[in-house]
Each structure stands twice: as C-alpha cells, then as structure tokens.
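User: Predict the structure for this protein chain, please.
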Amino acid sequence: MTAVWMTASRAYEHVISCGSPDAGPVMHGLDLVATRGAAMNGSLPVFGRQDINYTDAEGFVYLFTSSSHRDEFLANPDDYRVGAAGYCGFAVTGNDKGCNPPYEPCNGGVCLDSPDTFMIQPTNNMLYFFLSPHARRLFVGKDDGALSARQAEANVAIAGVVHQVRNCINTDVFTNTNCDNY
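Assistant: Here is the predicted structure, written as structure tokens:
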C-alpha cells in the first residue's frame, strides 16, 4: 500500500499551477473567437477590448472584439476551449527539457505575437499556444500533436484536482517579444 501512495504522490509532485482571476484577463485578453479564426487562416492572435467582456462563475474575465464574438462564445463555449490550460502546450506535456526540473510538466509561457505559435489541434479541436515555433513543432511531432495533446490535457486535469478548481487557465505567463529566439 505504501508503494502505491508513494507513486501517486510522486505523480503530483510537479503539477502546473492554474492562473488566478486576479492576475488579469484570460489569455492576456485574447478574443478566443477571433483568435480561433486567425489560427485557421495563419494570422496573428487577436486581442479583445476591455469594454466587451464576460466574467465566468469563477471570476475569470474573457475579452472580445465585438458583442457578436461574446455571444458566439457564450452560445458555444466548447468550441473555444484552450488546450494545455493556455500555457505552452509542449511544456505542459512534461516532455520539455527546459522545464525545472527537466521533463516534468511546467507552466511554460506563450508567445502572442506570431502566427507560428498557436494552432488548432485536429484530434481534440482545442486551441494550443506555444513559447516558440520550435516548441510548436516539437508538440506536433509525427502525429499532428495527438499524443502531446493527450499528455497535456491529462496534466491539466491533475492540476485541476490538486488545486481544486474547475477552470485551470493561463492569466499570467506570456511573452510578446523575440518568440523565434526560444
């Protein structure tokens, strides 16, 4: 029995943290509806406006560029889910040697000023973000990111249980410069 407990507690030793509603808007204020469209056509992520927003039951604030985008998000929230809790998809998989400790899930920052640092993963239809184009390529691998997405979402689910939150989402780990240098 002790061995089972040690194995289980070891699995929770390095868990990503979840963003706080107090830290700022979800995904640094990206309009998830517009950004999903941008992912489909190779454009930059799109930031919403402070005056067009929605606050969920846990206090997380989502920004939008228009009231029609807010209405679309509210009508179909599952269509705008963010993979890896909005942290670098590759870092959350636990396969990133740049995490501390290496090869453990971590809250990797994301770059929001490049069309090459976000994508829609075809297997689970979630929007994933990355620190760099290189991190995105590593996430995609040979299977279009299917295995990486499963690993990342399993780690996010663990984080939600450990932190006792329903909505584990990035509100505070971003970079907007030198994305190609990581």
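The chain is about 35% helix and 15% strand.
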